């Protein structure tokens, strides 16, 4: 596909626009809600947080939500972009790698068998599940004479994914009591994630993002095929393992925080690629902001659409993201 | 009628970009026509549109005096076969399975594998020298072997016209000659009309009855090899200085380019004592 | 040359060529399936001996067991078998058409559309309209969404990749709608809807079998007729066109066949995932690439996967009756991973 923004200059301008849009979305996400909170209160709360002040508490909740939304959006988007590059399959996403399902399964186990409720503990379970799934997929996709084969990885990923989903469903169907809780988690949510809970995730995601940017340049070689990449002096295997590690760190973190928000990891990379093409440095930067903007706005819409109830953010992202995605699919893919 | 294929103010392009503009080209029946031109000048595009793989922006293409737009795809496939420039062999397909696909336009739901099909496929494989590897997966072959398998497939189509887009890429010299000799024989013996895109001008001049040089979205020169292959044409079409001499074997024109290494003729030094 | 079997009567009226060894393999698989069916019919809260089952099939009166076989186990098994076979072939056609190993009936909106309609039906009309209308609602949903996807993907023809991407998009939107409906409905209909979404053949009747057979039978025959189109399209768009294949019509035909197959399966067995994706791959591991043989093989494997999962679901966790959709990937995925591991060389 041919990108829309051809010159570095236009890409840079696009990025600046995205950053502005991001700031606007962030502002909206903190301002919009049932209760209006004045501007200056925000500064007060920043300077001196007062847990007895209702406005401060509301702000605290909204900032936490915005933080989870941003974290999830950018992690899933970047992770999806990297996995699509790795497998050279436009249909790849963290979901296809079994990462979501692995995390979900571990969370359900933790809730059902160990009666764990604390989010921080659930987070580590989710992370372990994501990691386990990814390692399994990698091992199964790589055994054999030919080493890493994108098709095998993708197939193994789908099977592992199905396996974990079926374990999870089995537990849910046989134990209806947890269904409601887990269903909500499956639909994805950023509600009630106090910012302290996010703390362990933030460094992981930051490190992963830096790594992603560091390997962005060599990743450009991947779609030329292994042989050419090797010929150009790239250590292909090391690069691939690095990509998987980064993708798991990002997606695992996202799933741990927000549950199964599947669509973002698939569509945001496509949207970003529509603008900047295959240069991964730009692609990753665009993914970061587009992912965050999409999630922030989805959260706002989910909050205010049918008050007083909330629509899970995963649902809103899918509903908002689909029209964009279809537009791009129609514009961009003339020939396969 | 002497022209089998003729284009009438044919314009081709992608989106807003015109690649071939108002082209009137006649391809003589029963002759070998070779298209030459610089990379990206639209040779493949032209060939693809003649094979109806690309819709013209305007203009028509006639096959034996009939507008191709009025013939069914299958009808055309029985009369005109094309080998695209880049082909991709499906995973796991064997040589004979691939060559068999050439019979597609002649088969129907009920008649999927007649005695005739079998005979023609075998002949096609033998004449391209791939019969020995009939059961090997195509993906396990070398680039040149693969190319010959694909040529066998187009031969199995048994059409009176063959369009080949750079059929000799990836082939060693011996196999290049072999493929072109095969084209020559098909033309001599069966009277097939053959259109080839070729980069080797010396071989082109040797095998062509008719040559067409493309430049600037249209024909720069056409005619017999002697008429087309000139120093002037080389300068204009390929932006290359060269000498044209006579091929010592076939007496057709032969180009010898100048280059940085040999920017001018080196005179034989005679040391007079 | 490899051993091939050529069907070509002297008159030359028709001719057909099939590879020999895979035919034998397909027949073996079929036998295995029959044996498994007999075993599956025996198992349950009451044991019925395999002998009695064979007697039942040849028309010997087996007394009290007749009721168990005829009314309880056989229709349910047949629905599972038919649904699995349909899903397997549907996925096979799509994977060949799109030339992407990740393609499955989900991507052309059949599952998503069916689920939206079915969940809407369950959450809004349960108690108002008879549940026997549920398959109709699901089928309608599948059909509408498939047409929508096809229309959105059309732009001077259908490009497979565009079709898949748009299908994924629409499917995500559909599952979002489904989740929304489930979350905002009372708990009893939400768990009913959830069971539907995972896929279940609980309480299937002969009526269901009767309604499924004509659709699936016709579609299977049409699927076999796709073989030529599939093989020629594998050579790539340009070559296929130059060989005279009418690609767009063929694609429309293939999509229609797979929509019918999966639509019927989803209507009667709910959103069973995995089978449509995996059965074709398993079939390819075993048979190779001859499409005419992949069709029956994918059908046998898909069907077997589903009914075996169902037998396990209704026998292994007594008194619970675990929905087939849960077990099908629980059993199928390890098997598939094993095959993947086995085939690691080349
Ligand atoms: N699918 C396509 N989309 C857009 N432009 C194309 C496409 N195919 C070829 N072109 C352009 O058309 C021109 C002619 O290409 P081609 O016919 O392949 O040249 P050649 O003479 O080397 O075979 C080139 O400039 C190329 O960039
Ligand atoms: Mg070319």
TrEMBL record, chain A:
PANTHER family: FERRIC ENTEROBACTIN TRANSPORT SYSTEM PERMEASE PROTEIN, IRON(3+)-HYDROXAMATE IMPORT SYSTEM PERMEASE PROTEIN FHUB. This is Iron complex transport system permease protein. It is a multi-pass membrane protein. It is found in: Cell membrane. InterPro entries: ABC_BtuC-like, ABC_transptr_permease_BtuC. Keywords: Cell membrane, Membrane, Transmembrane, Transmembrane helix, Transport. The chain crosses the membrane at residues 12-30, 66-83, 95-116, 122-141, 153-174, 194-216, 237-268, 280-298, 310-329. Belongs to the binding-protein-dependent transport system permease family. FecCD subfamily. It holds the Pfam family FecCD. It comes from Geomicrobium sediminis. It comes from the Bacteria. The keyword Cell membrane applies.
TrEMBL record, chain B:
InterPro entries: AAA+_ATPase (IPR003593), ABC_transporter-like_ATP-bd (IPR003439), ABC_transporter-like_CS (IPR017871), P-loop_NTPase (IPR027417), Siderophore_ABC-ATPase (IPR051535). Residues 5-241 form the ABC transporter domain. It is a peripheral membrane protein. It is found in: Cell membrane. GO terms for molecular function: ATP binding. It comes from Geomicrobium sediminis. Keywords: ATP-binding, Cell membrane, Ion transport, Iron, Iron transport, Membrane, Nucleotide-binding, Transport. PROSITE patterns: ABC_TRANSPORTER_1, ABC_TRANSPORTER_2. It comes from the Bacteria. This is Iron complex transport system ATP-binding protein. SUPFAM superfamilies: P-loop containing nucleoside triphosphate hydrolases.
From TrEMBL, chain C:
The chain crosses the membrane at residues 20-41, 47-69, 76-95, 107-129, 136-154, 160-184, 212-232, 252-279, 291-312, 324-341. It is found in: Cell membrane. It is a multi-pass membrane protein. InterPro entries: ABC_BtuC-like (IPR037294), ABC_transptr_permease_BtuC (IPR000522). It comes from the Bacteria. Keywords: Cell membrane, Membrane, Transmembrane, Transmembrane helix, Transport. The keyword Transport applies. Pfam families: FecCD. SUPFAM superfamilies: ABC transporter involved in vitamin B12 uptake, BtuC (SSF81345). The keyword Signal does not apply. Belongs to the binding-protein-dependent transport system permease family. FecCD subfamily. This is Iron complex transport system permease protein. It comes from Geomicrobium sediminis. The lineage of its organism: Bacteria, Bacillati, Bacillota, Bacilli, Bacillales.
């Amino acid at each position: 596909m041919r990108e829309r923004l051809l010159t570095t200059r236009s890409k840079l301008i696009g990025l600046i626009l995205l950053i502005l849009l991001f700031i606007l979305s962030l502002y909206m996400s903190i301002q919009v809600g049932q209760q209006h909170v004045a501007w200056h209160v925000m500064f007060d709360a920043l300077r001196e947080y007062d847990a007895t002040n209702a406005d401060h508490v509301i702000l605290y909740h909204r900032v936490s939500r915005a933080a989870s939304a941003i974290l999830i959006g950018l992690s899933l988007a970047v992770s999806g972009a990297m996995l699509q590059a790795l497998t050279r399959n436009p249909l790849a996403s963290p979901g296809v790698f079994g990462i979501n399902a692995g995390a979900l399964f571990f969370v359900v186990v933790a809730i059902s068998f160990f009666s764990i409720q604390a989010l921080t503990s659930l987070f580590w379970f989710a992370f372990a599940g994501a990691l386990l799934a990814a390692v399994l997929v990698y091992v199964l996709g790589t055994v054999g004479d030919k080493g890493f084969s994108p098709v095998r990885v993708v197939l193994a990923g789908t099977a592992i994914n199905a396996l974990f989903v079926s374990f999870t469903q089995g537990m849910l169907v046989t134990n209806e009591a947890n269904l409601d809780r887990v269903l909500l988690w499956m639909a994805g949510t950023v509600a009630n994630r106090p910012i302290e809970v996010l703390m362990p995730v933030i460094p992981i995601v930051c490190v992963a993002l830096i790594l992603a940017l560091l390997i962005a340049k060599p990743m450009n070689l991947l779609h030329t095929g292994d042989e050419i990449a090797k010929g150009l002096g790239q250590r292909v295997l090391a690069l691939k393992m690095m990509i998987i590690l980064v993708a798991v760190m990002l997606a695992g973190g996202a799933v741990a925080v927000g549950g199964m928000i599947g669509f973002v990891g698939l569509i945001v990379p496509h949207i970003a690629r529509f603008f900047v093409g295959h240069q991964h440095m730009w692609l990753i930067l665009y993914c970061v902001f587009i992912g965050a903007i999409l999630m922030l706005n989805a959260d706002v819409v989910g909050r205010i659409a049918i008050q007083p109830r909330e629509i899970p953010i995963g649902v809103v992202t899918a509903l908002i993201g689909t029209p964009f995605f279809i537009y791009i699919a129609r514009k961009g893919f003339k020939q396969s | 009628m002497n022209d089998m294929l003729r284009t009438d103010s044919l314009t081709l392009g992608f989106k807003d970009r015109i690649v071939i503009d108002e082209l009137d080209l006649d391809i003589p029946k029963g002759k070998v026509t070779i298209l030459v031109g610089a990379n990206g000048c639209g040779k493949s595009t032209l060939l693809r549109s003649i094979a109806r793989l690309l819709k013209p922006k305007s203009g028509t293409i006639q096959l034996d005096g009939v507008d191709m737009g009025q013939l069914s795809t299958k009808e055309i496939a029985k009369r005109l076969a094309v080998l695209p420039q880049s082909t991709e062999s499906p995973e796991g397909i064997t040589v004979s399975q691939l060559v068999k696909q050439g019979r597609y336009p002649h088969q129907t739901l009920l008649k999927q594998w007649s005695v005739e099909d079998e005979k023609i496929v075998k002949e096609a494989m033998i004449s391209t020298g791939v019969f020995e590897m009939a059961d090997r997966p195509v993906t396990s072959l070398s680039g040149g072997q693969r190319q010959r398998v694909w040529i066998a497939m187009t031969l199995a189509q048994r059409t009176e016209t063959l369009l080949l887009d750079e059929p000799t890429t990836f082939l060693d010299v011996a196999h290049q000659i072999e493929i072109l000799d095969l084209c020559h024989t098909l033309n001599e013996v069966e009277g097939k009309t053959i259109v080839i895109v070729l980069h080797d001008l010396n071989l082109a001049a040797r095998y062509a009855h008719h040559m067409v040089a493309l430049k600037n979205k249209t024909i720069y020169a056409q005619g017999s090899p002697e008429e087309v292959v000139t120093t002037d044409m080389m300068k204009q079409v390929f932006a290359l200085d060269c000498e044209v001499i006579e091929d010592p074997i076939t007496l057709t024109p032969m180009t010898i380019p100048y280059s940085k290494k040999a920017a001018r003729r080196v005179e034989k030094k005679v040391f007079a004592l | 040359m490899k051993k091939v079997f050529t069907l070509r009567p002297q008159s030359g009226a028709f001719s057909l060529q099939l590879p020999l060894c895979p035919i034998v393999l397909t027949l073996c698989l079929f036998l295995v399936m029959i044996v498994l069916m007999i075993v599956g019919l025996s198992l349950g809260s009451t044991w019925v001996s395999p002998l009695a089952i064979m007697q039942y099939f040849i028309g010997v009166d087996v007394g009290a067991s007749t009721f168990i076989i005829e009314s309880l186990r056989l229709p349910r098994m047949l629905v599972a078998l038919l649904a699995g076979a349909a899903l397997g072939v549907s996925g096979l056609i799509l994977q060949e058409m799109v030339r992407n190993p990740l393609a499955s009936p989900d991507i052309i909106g059949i599952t998503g559309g069916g689920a939206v309609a079915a969940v809407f039906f369950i959450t809004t009309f349960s108690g108002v309209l008879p549940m026997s209308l549920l398959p109709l609602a699901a089928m309608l949903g599948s059909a509408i969404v498939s047409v929508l996807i096809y229309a959105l993907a059309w732009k001077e023809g259908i490009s497979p990749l565009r079709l898949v991407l748009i299908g994924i998009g629409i499917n995500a939107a559909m599952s979002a709608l489904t989740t929304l409906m489930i979350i905002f409905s009372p708990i009893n209909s939400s768990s009913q809807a959830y069971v539907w979404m995972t896929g279940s053949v609980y309480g299937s009747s002969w009526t269901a079998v009767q309604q499924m057979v004509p659709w699936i039978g016709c579609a299977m025959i049409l699927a076999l007729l796709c073989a030529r189109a599939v093989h020629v399209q594998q050579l790539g768009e340009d070559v296929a066109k130059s060989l005279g294949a009418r690609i767009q019509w063929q694609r429309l035909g293939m999509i229609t066949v797979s929509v019918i197959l999966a639509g019927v399966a989803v209507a009667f067995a709910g959103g069973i995932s995995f089978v449509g994706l995996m059965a074709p791959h398993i079939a390819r591991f075993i048979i190779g690439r001859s499409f005419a043989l992949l069709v029956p093989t994918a059908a046998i494997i898909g069907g077997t996967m589903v009914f075996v999962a169902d037998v396990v679901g209704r026998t292994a966790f007594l008194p619970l009756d675990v929905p087939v959709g849960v077990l099908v990937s629980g059993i199928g995925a390890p098997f598939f991973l094993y095959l993947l591991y086995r085939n690691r060389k080349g």
